[in-house]
Structures are given as C-alpha cells and as structure tokens.
Amino acid sequence: MFGRNKKALVVYHTKTGHTAEAAEAVARGLRERKFQVVVKRVSEVSPGELEGCAVLAVGSPTRGARPARVVKRFIKGLEKKSLKGKAATVFTAYAGFRGRATLRRLRRLLKRRGAKVVLRGVAVKAGAPLSLWKGPQASPEDVARLEELGRKLAKRA
Ligand SMILES: Cc1cc2nc3c(=O)[nH]c(=O)nc-3n(C[C@H](O)[C@H](O)[C@H](O)COP(=O)(O)O)c2cc1C
C-alpha cells in the first residue's frame, strides 16, 4: 500500500546468542513482507529509533522464569507516546521451563507502556538450563514459528 509505514524494530537481549538468533528469524519473516527491519540489542536502542517504526518485537532469554532485567528496564523506560498505536509482539529463548511465563510478562509490560500487543508471541526451546554454556539450538520447527511470527506481525501493522 502506498505510503504505509513499513519500518520495524526487533530488539532483544542475549547472553549466549539464542535470543539473537530468534530475533534474526523474526526479522526474516518481517522482511519477507517487505518491511525494513532494524535488529538491535536493547542496550543499543535510542528512543528516536522506536518513533519511526510501525511495529516492534521484543525478545528476552528466560531467566528465573522471567524476562532478563535489562529487557524489563528497557520497556519500563520507554515513553508511552513512543509506543502508542504500535503493533507489538514478544519472543523468548528458554531452556526448558517457564518460557510462556516470560512471554506473558513481556506482553504485560508492553501493554502498560501503551503498545498494541497483537500476537501472543513465541517461546523457543534452546540453550542449557541455568548455564552460560551455549546449549542446543532452537529446532527448525521453532525457527519456522519465529519467522511466521514476523510475517503475522507485518500483517497486523
Ligand atoms: C541465570 C539464568 C537463569 C535461567 N533461568 C531459566 C529459566 O527459568 N527457565 C528456562 O527454561 N531457562 C532458563 N535459563 C536458560 C536460558 O533461558 C537459555 O539458555 C536461553 O537459551 C539463553 O538465551 P541467550 O542465549 O539468548 O542468552 C537460564 C539461564 C541463566 C543463565
């Protein structure tokens, strides 16, 4: 559609790389739908970058059944006006338990900041529990679910 904002921001935190890989998969899905996508760590995002985007996807590793503290702080630090009307979703890498709890918390944080959370998000199993050792990768099926999340998010923008 002419003139439609097709910019997306995919932000994440990672320690051992699994959530970064998940972020790239979400970005691939968005790009398939002709979005211009910036993929960045939460620590590298400036508030202005968010303002120009129609959609936002936020990813975090699951840590103690929750999102990582830096991701929570990132969302809480966003101004409501910068999230208003933006279609948003979430994703997490978890090693075995409570990935969906992380998704729930991320969604709630985004809603509180005024984002329009349009999809429940995807939790992919990857990595080793309670360890900084890089464990198994996400399965091809899970990678496909992340790509699909990106495509669906593009549709909901
Ligand atoms: C301090 C810490 C706490 C973790 N807590 C959980 C947890 O509650 N549930 C779980 O399934 N995995 C947990 N994990 C494993 C990570 O979620 C998993 O390895 C994930 O793939 C890491 O993502 P990353 O490579 O993006 O850092 C924990 C890992 C660490 C280091």
Question: Could you characterize what this model shows?
Answer:
With 157 residues, this protein is of the alpha/beta class. The chain has one domain (7-156): Flavodoxin domain (Rossmann fold). It is 40% helix and 24% strand. It has 6 helices and 7 strands; from the N terminus they run E-H-E-H-E-E-H-H-E-H-E-E-H. Strands 1, 2, 3, 4, 5, 6 and 7 form a 7-stranded mixed beta sheet that branches. A hairpin with a 2-residue loop joins strand 3 and strand 4. Helix 1 packs across helix 6. The chain is globular. The structure holds flavin mononucleotide. Flavin mononucleotide (FMN) binds at residues 14-19, 61-65, 93-99, 126-130, 132, 135.
Give a brief rundown of this model.
This protein has 157 residues and is of the alpha/beta class. It has one domain: Flavodoxin domain (Rossmann fold, 3-Layer(aba) Sandwich). 40% of the residues lie in helices and 24% in strands.
Draw up the topology in text:
Blueprint: E1 7-12, H1 18-32, E2 36-41, H2 47-51, E3 55-63, E4 66-67, H3 69-76, H4 80-83, E5 87-94, H5 99-112, E6 116-117, E7 122-125, H6 140-156
Parallel strand pairs: 1-2, 1-3, 3-5, 5-6, 5-7
Antiparallel strand pairs: 3-4
Helix pairs in contact: 1-6
